[in-house]
Amino acid sequence: MELNLLTAISPIDGRYFKLTKSLRYIFSEFSFLKYRLQVEILWFKKIISMHKILKIQNIENEDILFIDDILKNFTIKDAMYIKKIEKKINHDVKALEYFLKNKFSQSKKLSLISELIHFSCTSEDINNVAYALMIKDARDQILLPLWSEIIDFLKKYSIQYKNNSLLSMTHGQPATPSTMGKEILNFYYRIKRQFFKLKEIEILAKFNGTTGNYNAHLIAYPNVNWHIISKEFITSLNLVWNPCTTQIEPHDYIAELFSCISLFNTILIDFNRDIWGYISLNYFKQISVDHEIGSSIMPHKINPIDFENSEGNLGLSNAIMNHMINKLPISRWQRDLSDSTVLRNIGVALSYSIIAYNSILNGLKKLKINTYQLLKNLNNNWSILAEAIQTVMRRYNINNSYEQLKKFTRGKEINKVDIHQFISNLNIPEIEKERLKKITPINYIGSAVQIIDEETK
């Protein structure tokens, strides 16, 4: 069966192909090979730049351009050739080295120094730097922009709905009101914190040989400070240098990064469920699209499928990332390969997140506040003002304030007339009675609006 959008096993490469397309340029096998090739070439150029110290032949600018063109013009055909070599020798990084040597053979000068390709490197030197660059690009070019878009939407709705009073539900029961804007602001604040955390997480890489001690380097060139050379190389790639490792970079930063993304996703799951509930209560209407169908048998339905899709894919993403968080920082002694196959699924984990982020953005664009339903529910729940009344009574030291309101309201249908009658009979100053009578379920929202104004400046 030919592989295409309909025959792909994973919905990432099938049903959701368009949504995850951007990640193919980072996490596909072709892209992984290209990132590795980039690291090999940059390390070779670093070695050549030390020609006086290492007492090796220098190369001209035209040779540098020749090397750069190998990466610039890297094609699927090149990648297939590398895979052909790998199939024969059963080693992916060595196959890349042989590919590069074959390219260098086309240049007389480069062919003379082709043994400096992959100089003193273990495969993990190449791989860990490649993964670090891939993760950095995915974070900076894809994740952060999508997160920023979601954050902007939540900020916009926080402001737009800041005056739309909302009957709160604590333990699923009517409770002290808020506003829809303030409830969205709560999520805005939470995910914004994760945005800044993700942005600041250090992406580490190492380049120190077989067991992290420059053994081979120092045998070849005992008088060179390879520790400093390693630092210079890694930092030149805008990565953070890890000076103390075994054969592998221990992946702690990946666990930190995925922990941040996983928490961001968990907060969004919470948001999806709240919005789903508000749609169910008819607090939000969804803008209908004429050609879309909500149910195969019930014509009236407009299901909150975008928020449901987002929730499901966030859960899948978190499940994979949580395995990586627990697995990747663990390696037997100086190295085992159990991390290798796991690392190859970084793109899979992020793909489910990308699908979810696009779904939530699509859902947010369809929301329209239903003021009528919000006000109706508030007006049906005057008993929620018991909190305000008993608190003012406490201020004036009225005994059993709480207990009086409990007896008056609990399990009963209370309306405006009942509330005002109760207030009129209180032994408090008349000015306080008038102030209490001005409170309604709609305007009893505390500082909700002011908090929004303050936090969205």
TrEMBL record:
Q: Adenylosuccinate lyase PurB C-terminal domain: which residues?
A: 331-445
Q: How does it assemble?
A: Homotetramer. Residues from neighboring subunits contribute catalytic and substrate-binding residues to each active site.
The residue stretches assigned to a coiled coil in this entry are none
Gene Ontology cellular component terms for the protein in this record: cytosol
- Give all residue intervals belonging to the Fumarate lyase N-terminal domain: 15-312
Q: One GO molecular-function annotation for this sequence?
A: N6-(1,2-dicarboxyethyl)AMP AMP-lyase (fumarate-forming) activity
SUPFAM superfamilies attached to this UniProt entry: L-aspartase-like
Keyword terms of this UniProt record: Lyase, Purine biosynthesis
Read off the Pfam families from this record: ASL_C (PF08328), Lyase_1 (PF00206)
Quote the catalytic activity from the record: (2S)-2-[5-amino-1-(5-phospho-beta-D-ribosyl)imidazole-4-carboxamido]succinate = 5-amino-1-(5-phospho-beta-D-ribosyl)imidazole-4-carboxamide + fumarate; N(6)-(1,2-dicarboxyethyl)-AMP = fumarate + AMP
Q: Give the record's GO biological process terms.
A: 'de novo' AMP biosynthetic process; 'de novo' IMP biosynthetic process
Q: This chain belongs to which protein, by name?
A: Adenylosuccinate lyase
Organism whose genome encodes this protein: Buchnera aphidicola (Aphis helianthi)
The EC number on file is: 4.3.2.2
Q: Which family does it belong to?
A: Belongs to the lyase 1 family. Adenylosuccinate lyase subfamily.
Which CDD domains does its entry note? PurB (cd01598)
Q: In which pathway does it act?
A: Purine metabolism; AMP biosynthesis via de novo pathway; AMP from IMP: step 2/2; Purine metabolism; IMP biosynthesis via de novo pathway; 5-amino-1-(5-phospho-D-ribosyl)imidazole-4-carboxamide from 5-amino-1-(5-phospho-D-ribosyl)imidazole-4-carboxylate: step 2/2
In UniProt terms, what function does this protein have?
Catalyzes two reactions in de novo purine nucleotide biosynthesis. Catalyzes the breakdown of 5-aminoimidazole- (N-succinylocarboxamide) ribotide (SAICAR or 2-[5-amino-1-(5-phospho-beta-D-ribosyl)imidazole-4-carboxamido]succinate) to 5-aminoimidazole-4-carboxamide ribotide (AICAR or 5-amino-1-(5-phospho-beta-D-ribosyl)imidazole-4-carboxamide) and fumarate, and of adenylosuccinate (ADS or N(6)-(1,2-dicarboxyethyl)-AMP) to adenosine monophosphate (AMP) and fumarate.
